[in-house]
Specification:
With 144 residues, the protein is mainly alpha-helical. Helix content is 47%, strand content 0%.
């Protein structure tokens, strides 16, 4: 019995066992990006590179971390863009402006708690305090 290297008892090199067929039988598929494999629009490879650059543990980041983060970023982006698109459609405009982004983010309770940043050109949210709103019946009595 041969032990170690050299013996043809299965493994990768020999013709013993396996599925048979020639080595170059299959057509080589073109390389597929990790974004395509994950079914995402956001760049998984680029996010992985930036994660490795920012991490302290010698740039060691799991492969799934980048996919997960890309999916989260894509979901948040889609959510904000959908709400901003609705706001722009309400104003009968075809283009999303910073004002629409502001209205979308501040109008949604969860996004408002997540995004604390000031949006340049976003304006303010329309709000009138209850104490400043005059009631119709009291205003009429004061006139008489």
């Amino acid at each position: 019995i041969m032990s170690g290297k050299g013996g043809k008892v299965g493994g990768k090199g020999g013709k013993v066992g396996g599925k048979g067929g020639k080595v170059g039988d299959k057509k080589k598929r073109p390389p597929q990006s990790r974004s395509v494999k994950a079914g995402l629009q956001f760049p998984v490879g680029r996010i992985h590179r930036h994660l490795k650059f920012r991490v302290t543990r010698n740039g060691r980041v799991g492969a799934n971390a980048a996919v997960y983060m890309a999916a989260i970023c894509e979901y948040l982006c889609a959510e904000v863009l959908e709400l901003a698109g609705n706001a722009s459609r309400d104003m009968r405009m075809k283009r999303i402006t910073p004002r629409h982004l502001q209205l979308a983010i501040r109008g949604d309770e969860e996004l408002d708690s997540l995004i604390k940043a000031t949006i340049a050109g976003g304006g303010v949210i329309p709000h009138i305090h209850k104490s400043l709103v005059s009631k119709g019946s009291k205003a009429k009595r004061r006139k008489h």
